[in-house]
Amino acid sequence: MNQNKIGLAWIKEQFILDDIKIDTECFTAKISSINKEDVQCHLYPESYRPKDTAVDQLKFALKYEPLNLRCLSDLFKKPDVDKAIESALVLSPSSKYNRLIGFYYEFLTKKSLKTQKLLKGNYVDAVNKDIYYVAPSIKEQKFRVNNNLTGNGMLTMLIHRNENLLKDDELKLLLIESVSGYPVEFIDRATRYLISKETKSSNEIEAESISPNKLIKFIFALETINDEELTKEKLIDTLNIIKEKHYHEFDYRYEQNYLGDSGFNYVGSIDYVTPKPSDAHELMDEWFLVRNKVLQSDMPSLAKAAVLSSSFVFIHPFMDGNGRISRYIMQDTLYRMGVIDKQYSLPLSSGILLELRKYYDVLNEKSQKIMKYVDFHLDDNGKLTVKGDTVDLYRHLSFDSDALFLSDIAKKVTKELVPEEMERLKLFDDIFKDLKENIDLPNKDISLMATLLMNNKGKISIKKRKGVLGHVNAESLDYAEQVYKETLDDSDDGRLG
């Protein structure tokens, strides 16, 4: 079988870029298809074959293949590649792809190329805005390139355009529809309830409980999310709200961390090795810079929330609590984009909790790719040491699946979960009102009875009757159960039972 690699596949093989994952490989071949596991293969006529040089193969890749910044970054570190790029620019200073290669070299390496001639030609976009979401362009005069990347070379958050992603106006309409038919005062009251649900659900994702005091503080943090700029200090303060005082953190971590089994020597159960502590500090500095580009980009707000929260998770700057802070970042992003405001909360964590397996699958998709190339050692004391320089593994990740997942979750939350929760809250109010009018008990007892009925499908258990409600007569408790049944029967949605 005559198969000839071209483009990034040629570059990967020729320059021995063994720790580079390429999702698409190109060939010139006399067959109609090539089947390779986990790789999309594309065939081109022999006439498409570029010359066997790094520059010519890279031209082909930029023209026909998905942008792979990690591959370009590693290629540019190889000896004499810079000289080859300089020579190409001298020979063809107006070439669109020569100029793009020159731009990407300086963008990714932060080194300057020596150009002998004034480069010519119309300005060209760094990435195709018909294929990728882009940031506002910055004109790079040296190469006559419009830098529209959602990144700065040290960290990128690039995703493909996708018609299946929920647009801002679509999301706003779904939000309106989810609370339609309820009076304004009820929606205002429900907002705090939904924020509370978001906070509890975010902790449940991590299989951790939160004290009432910390719950109130975290709710307040969500409610005041618009009042100050998101900074390193703000993230740390928010993190410490959900942590016990003796576990408070005051900076990014200075220890190596990993996700997986906490037992000793369970190397096979280590799911993800986080960046080295020094790398995490560097990447978070870049994260805040790139965050501004993402917020200014033309991504839908849900996509912005997804890439910012997921990139934060993979940097994993804290020893603990990174998942919950990442979901705080989701809310922060949506608030700042004006999609939701203080009059409403979108309980995304509650939706994620319903699709937890898919949530972890999306995260594992990237972590597994990273783990293939991380060399680490776990000693007898459970201390993990990472070997070599690994920071580049975390700089240029793909967040397409993250954006699509969060978009799907938002649809589920607005179409199903929020209406159900609003109806549950209304049911509680109706039950409380009836009990208040017909049973002579303090509000706290009536509220407790209504809550127990809601949580136990209209029944107050014998344990509760003898315990926290032992002072309430049986007739009142039986009446409460009957009120629940009748109120539920009168509601529009019997599913709440």
How does the SSE layout of this entry go?
Elements (H helix, E strand, L loop, with lengths): L2 E4 L1 H7 L9 E6 L10 E5 L9 H11 L4 H7 L5 H11 L4 H14 L14 E2 L12 E3 L4 E3 L20 H11 L5 H22 L6 H12 L8 H10 L16 E3 L9 E4 L3 H20 L4 H15 L6 H15 L11 H7 L1 H16 L3 E4 L5 E4 L12 H39 L4 H13 L6 H5 L7 H17 L7
Parallel strand pairs: 2-3, 4-6
Antiparallel strand pairs: 1-2, 5-6, 7-8, 9-10
Write up what this structure looks like.
The chain is mostly helical and 497 residues long. Helix 15 crosses helix 18. It is built from 18 helices and 10 strands. The chain has helices at residues 8-14, 54-64, 69-75, 81-91, 96-109, 168-178, 184-205, 212-223, 232-241, 277-296, 301-315, 322-336, 348-354, 356-371, 400-438, 443-455, 462-466, 474-490, and strands at residues 3-6, 24-29, 40-44, 124-125, 138-140, 145-147, 258-260, 270-273, 375-378, 384-387. Strands 1-2-3 form a 3-stranded mixed β-sheet. The chain has a 3-stranded mixed β-sheet with strand order 4-6-5, with helices on one face. Strands 7-8 form a two-stranded antiparallel sheet. The chain folds into 4 domains: 1-75, no CATH class; 81-149, no CATH class; 168-418, Fido-like domain (Fic-like fold); 439-496.
